[in-house]
Description:
It is a single chain. The protein is of the alpha/beta class and 253 residues long. The chain has helices at 2-18, 43-55, 66-74, 133-136, 139-147, 157-165, 176-183, 210-224, 227-237, 245-249; strands spanning 21-27, 57-63, 80-85, 94-95, 100-102, 104-109, 127-130, 151-154, 171-175, 192-195, 201-207. Strands 1, 2, 3, 4, 5 and 11 form a six-stranded mixed beta sheet that branches. The protein is globular.
Amino acid sequence: MRLNWILVLLLVAAQGVLAAAPLTVLVGQQKPPYINTANISGYEVDLLAEVVSRMGYEPVFLFVPNARIKPLLLQGEGDIASLQPVTNGEADLFYSNPYIRYQNIAISLAKNQLAINQSSDLARYSVLAFQNARLVLGPDYTDMARISDDYRETVDQQAQLTMLLSQRVQVVVMDRNIFNYYRLQHDNAEDMAMHPLFNNTAYRAAFRDAKLQRAFDRALLSVMLDSWYQRLQRKYFGEENQSLQHRLLCTDS
């Protein structure tokens, strides 16, 4: 009987060792195809889940407004803060290599034949952009937003395309993958003109623990060198359009 109890205790201990410890990842709110809070999926969610799993942890996602992600990490409310700008710096935090990039573009109805070649040209039109666009799209865009008589920002990116198609605005500014996601939901979508005015924006993850940051970078490299990475992009975007591997391989951890 004593031997049986010893075996039971050993099995319980073994299960405890094999069970992955949870790691809380702070991510933004509903933003398909990157984040779908209804079923905890999307390109960014799946990517971070795979990286955390390859680190040896169980990913637990906490969905919060983007503005709250870094403050919550600093308060100890999570282990990983997603979507941090590459230029961001914080003495108490450690930053990963870039893991995701956004490709913001200006979009208009092709039939309107708008002349848009640089950010300043947008001041002539009614523009609806994503929230905080004026903070991340460069100084020329910031100046345009400041002087424009008809510039707005919204958290509802589905509404951006709806308002463009109904001609309540002349231009929307949003990520190309988000635009493509919502455009597929409109059977009668008109031809669009794409205006690639902006550089791609890469984002990193932030940590309070340097060891976790280094483990994240190692796991991220493993993911990006795996065919799984290309399949993930095709699943959510219909194409491979992230290409961050060269950045990762040339950056020290």
